[in-house]
Amino acid sequence: MEFLKEALGDELFGAVEEKLAGNENIKLANLADGGYVSREKYAALESENGANKKMLEEQNARMAEFDEMKSAYDALKEKYDADTAGFAKKMAEAGKSHAIDMALMSRRAKNIKAAKALLDMDKIEYKDGVLSGFDEQIESVTADNEYLFGDEIKLSGGMRHSGKNQASHAFLQTIYENQAKRN
């Protein structure tokens, strides 16, 4: 109560102090220094605090859901990347295999599978439609296995031609010549 002494003066302060002495129902505080908060203001702040806590809990729950979704997304992305890499590898292998088949056909291999089995596939590379390492190997394979190459044509997959049908032979001959021009 000393803060009132300056404002009221000694005489008036003494009278107020005398009247309030022993009265437990009245309490004085200086609101200017922030030492006292009214009941209404306290209740409003407490209500606001409760609402903020509830909002924080809801946001934390949303963040947990987001973290779960992000984990699921990361797992799916990882699977997608792995599947894409696997698919690209398979496509590259299929492209290489097809290019080797076409190159063997242009060399008049009688049996593509048999001729292909004699090649070291690890030494043959296929990039941008070009085989490298094939020509070096096919020369020695052809020299060592002349019986696999020549006029009689055996294609893998069941189609065979032994020269009986001239139209089929001419058609296949044209295919081989075109493939040889491309390679």
Written overview of the protein:
- The protein has 2 domains: 1-35, no CATH class; 37-182, no CATH class.
- The protein is built from 5 helices and 4 strands.
- The chain has helices at 2-20, 39-106, 112-117, 134-144, 166-182, and strands at residues 125-127, 130-132, 153-154, 160-161.
How does the SSE layout of this entry go?
Elements: H1 2-20, H2 39-106, H3 112-117, E1 125-127, E2 130-132, H4 134-144, E3 153-154, E4 160-161, H5 166-182
Antiparallel strand pairs: 1-2, 3-4
Helix pairs in contact: 2-5
Q: Output the helix-strand order.
A: HHHEEHEEH
Oligomer: single chain
- Helix/strand-derived category reads mainly alpha
Query: Into which percent range does the helicity of residues fall?
Result: 55-70%
Tally of structural domains: 2
Radius of gyration: 47 Å
Strand content: 5-15%
Number of helical regions: 5
Shape: rod-shaped
Could you list the spans in which at least 5 consecutive residues all have pLDDT below 50? Answer: none
Roughly how many Å apart are the termini?
A: 107 Å
Q: Compute the average pLDDT.
A: 83
Structure summary, number of beta strands: 4
Order of strands side by side in the largest beta sheet? 1-2
Largest sheet: 2 strands, antiparallel
Summarize the structure.
By secondary structure, the protein is mostly helical.
Defining key terms:
two-stranded antiparallel sheet; 2 domains; 5 helices; 5% strand; mainly alpha; 183 residues
